[in-house]
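Troubleshooting: if your tokenizer reports a length mismatch, compare your output against this known-good record of 557 residues.
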Amino acid sequence: MPGRRCWALEGAGSYGAGLAAFRRGEGERVVEVGRPKRPLRRSGAKSGPAWNWPASGNGVACCPCRLLVIGAQLALAHAQAPRPGEVVPLLEAVGQAAEPHGGDRPSSSPRQHGLPRRTGRPPRTSWVPTAKTPARGTSPSPRWPVVARRHPHAAASPTAGARGRRWRLLLVVVLACLVAAACTSQQREQPTGTSRPAGVPAQRDYWPTSGWRTAPAAEAGMDPKVLAVLDTNVAYHPQLHSLLVVRHGYLVYERYWNGDAGTGQEAFSVTKSFTSALVGIALRDHKLKGLDQTVGELLAPHLPPTADRRLVKVTVRQLLTMSSGLAADDASPGGDPGLTVRLRQSRDWVRHILGQKLATRPGATFAYSNASSHLLSAIVADATGRSTLAFARAKLFTPLGIHSEHAFQPVEVADPTRALEQAYEQAAVAWPTDPQGYHTGFGGLKLAARDLAKLGYLYLNGGRWDGVQVVPAGYVRASTQPQSHPPPGSGFDGYGYQWWLASEHGHPSFLAMGFGGQVVQVIPDLDLVVVITTDAANQRYDAQSLVGETIIPASTG
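Known-good structure output:
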């Protein structure tokens, strides 16, 4: 409100009235959201041993696994040979073993479950590929007359025959276990892109836990002459408080116009990306079972009797992707900033949110919601048994070298006193709470600009920091890929888990963004992190243009 600082003022929230005017333009808020599909390792056929090919870390069927699968199914086919003494084409028997029992063969579909099977005579007939076609050279050759023949003594001893069948079935089970072990082992050994995005070095020569090292622009692969233009261009952005450029892990540009490297910067909605990281860490520590756990399961004590039944079924994933169905509470078209004001005026924020009626069907539409992010903070606190800040301090801040021991933690109120405002302004680290002690999951965090850069650097490195996987690599990858979609024409390529996604002059990037132009932008293929903090009262978002106009052109090697 005019004349007062509002710590949780996330009305524009880095969407709509904020950078929207500069980067995106106006557009419809309600759009369809699609959930990512998960690949299946095994087909759903219940009638037989129909396997999809297991894959190695790079997505290609691994040779040991294919051989083990072939061996398992050949053994099973041999065990199921119809009569003693009968000669059966073994490969044909394998195909029959993989088909449904009791009835006609399936129609001649171009895709069948199980191993590649022959569909006609003579033996050299072409093979029908399975759902995942094996790599070339791994299919059994049809040129050799392979047959299965019962042992001549099998009919003489039923007991021995039964015992033999049991041993053969046991062999199938053992081979199947070896398949799983081989796949798991190869996947663990494969260095994948989930932990190291393209353009990011496999090894770092240091980690900035105890502080960022600086380097001349040329040594960090940046053109000094082009980068020097920044000093001229920043004059057109009087709202700037700080601007940091990290290339290949080194600070190559650092300027402050309000304070210094130790000054706390109001992050506003950049807080959301920190909250998201804590969700990922809670998953790593098994404090959360998965992203499909529901609000009704995780926040049951807070649910009012009149809670919307649909809201009870909202998942953590939907809260992360701004597709929970809660109404947009920012200043963009279709949003109602008054919802955030009324939230701050309530006595119990979590209960107040859970008492709202959903505006849309969960999972169907994107709507920028501060309330969703605050529920995530409450979920982290309740699931871990400690406050969001305490959990962050132990699991995120300390590993990254972010000092928060003396963090200011005021209770957020609608009309703070001037003394309270001044205490917050002077704090180097701060994170307000709601009346029940839950830290505001959508805004209010204050950290030094160098510490904001550490979050970007952590995600640039796939959640790994100095040999420790702080945030799960798969979670980081999912966080920085499109999970929901802001309106067409918004200027963004999508929204991940509390991160925005955008192409910056042809380079894919992801951004943590806050009201008034706060930005932590990561450009993986350039191994680049940029931090911008501003005086939010100006509500200017154009400083982010410096990234595309000057910083990217300066990144030459």
